[in-house]
Amino acid sequence: MPIVTAPASVETITRLRLVVMRLSRLLRQQSADELSPTLTSTLSTVERRGPLTLGELAAAERVQPPSMTRAVARLEERGLVTRVPDPVDRRTARVSISAAGSKTLTAARRRKNAYLAERLTTLTAEERASLERALPLLERLVGDQL
Amino acid sequence: MPIVTAPASVETITRLRLVVMRLSRLLRQQSADELSPTLTSTLSTVERRGPLTLGELAAAERVQPPSMTRAVARLEERGLVTRVPDPVDRRTARVSISAAGSKTLTAARRRKNAYLAERLTTLTAEERASLERALPLLERLVGDQL
DNA sequence: TATTGTTATACTCTATAACTATA
DNA sequence: TATAGTTATAGAGTATAACAATA
After folding, report:
1. C-alpha angle with apex B14: B61 to B58, nearest 5 degrees?
2. Which of A45, B33, B55, B80 could form a disulfide with B101 if both were Cys (CB 3.0 to 4.6 A apart)?
3. How many angstroms away from the CA of B59 is the closest CA of chain A?
4. pTM for the whole thing?
């Protein structure tokens, strides 16, 4: 471990930005037919963190409330989430995943993962381990709390 | 190098997908006022790989030709790239970065990097090193050829 | 008044399909 | 005919501003 904590280099940062944008584009294209990355991410958060208000969801997904209104409306149309009005504060409702939502998410995950998994086979086991070690760091970068 | 190459776990792949989408969203938001991630990425490719035809650019950025037509048109409007018609094949032209384009890219890089760099300060030097090791692997995942 | 969420509107990015110009 | 690129069109995702309902 180095003693001096040099800041990340300009080149590293630039490459990180570019590779993230390109990878996200690839993932978005790949999922054209199914649940979009945006809806998948939202549905995953609903599944993982239980019933949430729209505002909490927007904060978790780091989008503005109108964007989340739209995303939840789509998920609801497709029967993947339900909204239960808060009995105390009638301005809000809790969004929960439905049985169909869980099922859809599982199936979507399988297909989406298959695509990435196929690309990951080009890496050695050691390289994949290296990638796994970097994963929590990326998550901290986006402020992901498990 | 290990003998057995265990496949990446479902959980790892899922997390990789989600974190990439969230990070890309964060980066896109952050650059609302300046050069968008799409234009930045395109301009970076033009800078790095020299004069390219529109088709070559589309392939490099992994978008369809109409998307690239649009991106290049925007960059051209803003004087960041130039198109030089191919003297032999008059259907095509070579796209090059302009002096203004280089200048803009450098400035954009500085601002965009500042944002990511700030977030990277929450990592230890060792963690940043870990992230740097993973970077080329992510690049291979998207098929980035330097 | 303040907060939560929605509606209205606009813009970027991307795609597919159909077309034009050139080879 | 085949290829390179463009135009037409559509849809997702996101934002800001203005609004409505409730606290």
Report:
1. 5
2. B80
3. 12
4. 0.86
Confirm whether any atom of chain C, the nucleic acid strand, is less than 7 Å from CB of B49.
Answer: no
Is the CA virtual torsion B121, B125, B126, B132 positive or negative?
A: positive
Range of the domain at B129: 36-141
For residue B9, tell me if it sits in a domain: no
pLDDT in tens, B20-78: 988 888 888 876 668 898 999 999 999 999 799 999 999 999 999 999 999 999 999 99
Tokens of A35: 């649940």
Whether A71 and A42 have beta carbons less than 8 Å apart is answered as yes
Question: What CATH code is carried by the domain that includes residue A105?
Answer: 1.10.10.10
Burial A119-130 (b: 16+ CB within 10 A, else e): bbeebeeebbeb
Give the best residue of A10, A25, A38, A45 to mutate against chain B (max B CB count within 10 A): A25
B65-85 pLDDT per residue, tens = 999 999 999 999 999 999 999
Residue A126 lies in a domain: yes
pLDDT tens readout for residues A53-65: 999 999 999 999 9
A84 lies in some domain: yes
For the CA atoms of A49, A67, B21, B145, what is the dihedral angle to 10 degrees? Answer: 180
Cβ atoms within 10 Å, residue B146? 7
Q: Where are the alpha helices (DSSP H) in chain A?
A: 10-30, 37-49, 54-61, 65-77, 99-120, 125-141
Indicate the number of domains in chain A.
1
User: For B123, which DSSP code?
Assistant: S
Residues of B in contact with A62 (CB under 8 A): 22, 25-26, 29
